[in-house]
Design goal:
alpha/beta, 7 helices, 5-stranded mixed beta sheet, 40% helix, globular, two-stranded antiparallel ribbon, single chain
Length: 194
């Protein structure tokens, strides 16, 4: 039985794309060390990224840029990135496992799929953990590329998330072309809108 795990990276940042990954494995397949990307070191994630793409049955990684996020909102952009991955897969697995508790695609496309949403699935389901690693490594690499274009923002350090350092850079330099102009979120006890 083929199972497709789906997860995203980059819903919360102030800058850069949101990235979704879909990865298909046989239901009984595992790779040692694969778990939620947030609890694995960067160097280990890179090694596992290569193992996953070499050992999976099929995978796709899709991104939605900051301009489209501003246009359609982050939730719809995340769902669109996931749908793009699903539509680009050549194979149609028997089951899709999606991290989280929400999965609604354009034109109710999800109704064509046998799927299950799993809260904290990136920590409990191998295929979702694998997708989590693919999405995070891809997005982190992209933000490091942006760091070369916009070095004053230090994207390589915070990957676009709203750290104290990043917010200070926005105050000092204004928004870059990759910032999400419609972002509004909570950081600790403070609400931040840019």
């Amino acid at each position: 039985m083929l199972i497709c795990g789906i997860d995203e990276a980059g819903r919360g940042p102030l800058a850069g794309p949101v990235v979704a990954a879909a990865v298909i494995f046989e239901s009984d397949y595992t790779i040692e060390g694969v778990k939620d990307s947030k609890v694995i070191s960067r160097s280990k994630r890179k090694i596992l990224f290569d193992k996953i793409i070499n050992e999976c049955v099929e995978y796709k990684i899709c991104e939605i840029d900051n301009n489209e996020i501003d246009e359609i909102n982050i939730l719809r952009a995340t769902m669109k990135a996931m749908m793009n991955c699903i539509k680009l897969l050549k194979l149609k697995p028997e089951l899709y496992l999606i991290d989280g508790n929400y999965f609604k695609l354009e034109s109710d496309f999800q109704n064509n799929l046998n799927y299950k949403t799993i809260i904290d699935g990136d920590a409990t389901e191998f295929s979702i953990s694998s997708a989590s690693i693919l999405a995070k490594v891809y997005r982190d690499d992209k933000m490091e590329e942006y760091d070369k274009v916009y070095p004053e923002y230090l994207f390589k350090n915070h990957k676009g998330y709203g750290t104290r350092e990043h917010i200070k850079k926005i105050i000092d330099f204004g928004l870059s072309p990759i910032h999400r102009e419609t972002f509004c979120g909570r950081y600790g006890k403070k609400k931040l809108c840019i």
